[in-house]
Amino acid sequence: MTPKKLVSDFIFKDECYAIIGACFEVYKDKGCGFYEPVYQECLGIEFEHCRIPAIAQLGLSLEYRGRILSQKYFTDFVCYDKIIVELKAVTELADEHRAQVLNYLKAGGFELGLLVNFGHYPKLQYERIVKTQVTPDSSEAIYLLNLLDPLNRLNDAEFLMLKLFIGARPQHARSPLTADKNWIENPFVIVFCVVWRV
């Protein structure tokens, strides 16, 4: 069984390949251990060398209740007028770094951001972040989690009775990661979940 591709794998693929290639060149030369501004300056030079159109420190305006704020978000780079590149020099990327890129995407009206970490050892770390950040896999998992919520409230005896009543095999699990989608989408199970919620 082959894994489904992420939505972000299809957005600006060639441009991302060029940007990440430039990042690898900088990492190959400098390695990890420097502060972020060093990598930003090196990457600016590499973008010029590779003829990748890039704007450094682009200020993104923020709005609140219809008013433009005096505070701005400053991106590390905007490449090809459509991809935000945010640099880090930390041991590991964290959720707050991803949230920062998502905020940049929302503030600037961009669809794709690249979060690049030069501080990771032994290799460059990067992630593609799409504004919607919804993948077929994640939306299906959310669907199954929402659908299974009433089933998770059953005790083991009630759950076993439900499985026996609908003719489910005992190995079916409550977890969306191991659940058989055909069993989960059984009309009786769906009706049970809907009635249980009401």
| Poorly predicted segments | 1-8, 133-147, 169-181, 194-198
Main sheet: strands, sense, barrel: 5 strands, mixed
Strand count:
7
Structural classification: alpha+beta
Walkthrough of the structure:
The protein has 198 residues and is of the alpha+beta class. The protein folds into two domains: 7-130, Lambda Exonuclease, Chain A (Alpha-Beta Complex), CATH 3.90.320; 136-197, no CATH class. It is 45% helix and 19% strand. The strands form two sheets. It has a five-stranded mixed β-sheet with strand order 1-4-5-6-7, sandwiched between helices. Helix 1 (13-30) packs across helix 2 and helix 4 packs across helix 7. Mean pLDDT is 77; it is low at 1-8, 133-147, 169-181 and 194-198.
Supply the key terms.
2 domains, five-stranded mixed sheet, 7 helices, disordered N terminus
Question: What does the secondary structure layout of this molecule look like, with pairings?
Answer:
Elements: H1 13-30, H2 36-49, E1 54-56, E2 59-64, E3 67-74, E4 77-79, E5 83-88, H3 95-108, E6 112-117, E7 125-130, H4 136-152, H5 156-166, H6 181-184, H7 187-197
Parallel strand pairs: 5-6
Antiparallel strand pairs: 1-4, 2-3, 4-5, 6-7
